[in-house]
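ok new one. same drill as before - structure tokens go in, u give me an amino acid for every spot. 323 of them this time. try not to just spam alanines like last time pls lmao
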């Protein structure tokens, strides 16, 4: 990103998912942008319908940093960035155009383009498009680089190599030891059936269930524990996988897996996923992007690869929103 460009701003808050989605769209556009780091204060918890077009939800440093000259285009993701984007448009005298990933929750008419996930229910409108998953920064070039960087770390594993991408607990749902055992047991049987091995990575949300994961692994494998100081092989495992099994509670993880073009299998036992995530799964399965994981891997299956960031970038250009 270019710090001296005032034509396009991308709002970057402290939510990793929001940042990844906004930066994914920026990368797909391939244009110089200015990254505007924002941090929230207490008022950010107020519903957007009450905040309106406002920077009141930002801390003082962020408020001071967001100033004229105003941009031609603002790209942002997530509910809490939406009042700030609307405030920038108001300060610019209505000149700045707004692209929002995910529903802003209020003031929809003020946005030039809203990219609303299909699993988020809502009414259609001329400035709203439906996206099947979340945009992100992983491109085919990213995967190519990751393959080159990580291949030496798994070269001793039998092929085909199956990536098992484990997220974990969310605010309302718990990834239990029983779920971890079920996943690894089924994944090992599936890998053994095709003469392969497992590449397993966990996340902070896996919590103490990582111990169950490690104890359950008996066949050929490599495991990255979330509490390890080693470099995270997440992208490398995605790039090197012949097939991917991913826990279904993360929109980002499911979306990133479906960008590889490899067979993707969704692990979603009862009690792990919300209704929203279940809708995501149905959409991905209906679009031939993924299948439910039922203990069997079909390595001959060629899914439809997802590239949501490029779809959004193409829509931005088609609507004439690029300065």
């Amino acid at each position: 990103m270019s710090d001296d460009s005032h034509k396009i701003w991308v709002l970057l808050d402290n939510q990793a998912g929001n940042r990844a989605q906004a930066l994914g769209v920026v990368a797909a556009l391939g244009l110089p942008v200015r990254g505007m780091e924002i941090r929230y204060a207490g008022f950010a918890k107020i519903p957007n319908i009450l905040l309106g077009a406002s920077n009141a939800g930002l801390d003082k440093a962020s408020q001071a940093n967001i100033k004229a000259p105003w941009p031609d285009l603002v790209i942002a993701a997530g509910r809490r960035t939406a009042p700030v984007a609307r405030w920038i448009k108001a300060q610019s005298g209505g000149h700045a155009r707004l692209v929002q990933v995910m529903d802003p929750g209020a003031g929809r008419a003020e946005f030039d383009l809203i990219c609303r996930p299909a699993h988020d229910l809502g009414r259609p409108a001329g400035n709203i498009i439906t996206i099947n998953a979340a945009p992100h920064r992983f491109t085919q070039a990213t995967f190519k680089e990751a393959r080159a960087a990580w291949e030496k770390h798994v070269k001793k594993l039998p092929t085909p190599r199956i990536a098992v991408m484990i997220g974990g607990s969310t605010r309302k749902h718990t990834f239990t030891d029983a779920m971890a055992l079920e996943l690894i047991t089924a994944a090992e049987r599936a890998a053994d059936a095709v003469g392969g091995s497992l590449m397993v990575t966990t996340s902070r949300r896996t919590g103490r269930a990582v111990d169950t994961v490690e104890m359950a692994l008996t066949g050929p494998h490599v495991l990255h524990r979330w509490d390890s100081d080693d470099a995270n092989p997440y992208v490398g495992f995605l790039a090197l996988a012949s097939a991917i099994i991913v826990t279904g509670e993360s929109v980002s993880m499911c979306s990133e897996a479906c960008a590889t073009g490899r067979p993707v299998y969704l692990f979603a036992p009862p009690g792990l996923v919300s209704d929203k995530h279940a809708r995501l799964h149905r959409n991905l399965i209906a679009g031939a992007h993924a299948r439910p994981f039922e203990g069997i891997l079909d390595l001959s299956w060629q899914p439809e690869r997802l590239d949501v960031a490029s779809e959004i970038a193409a829509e931005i250009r088609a609507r004439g929103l690029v300065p």
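The two ends are 16 Å apart (CA to CA). and btw Residues 177-193 form the longest helix (17 residues).
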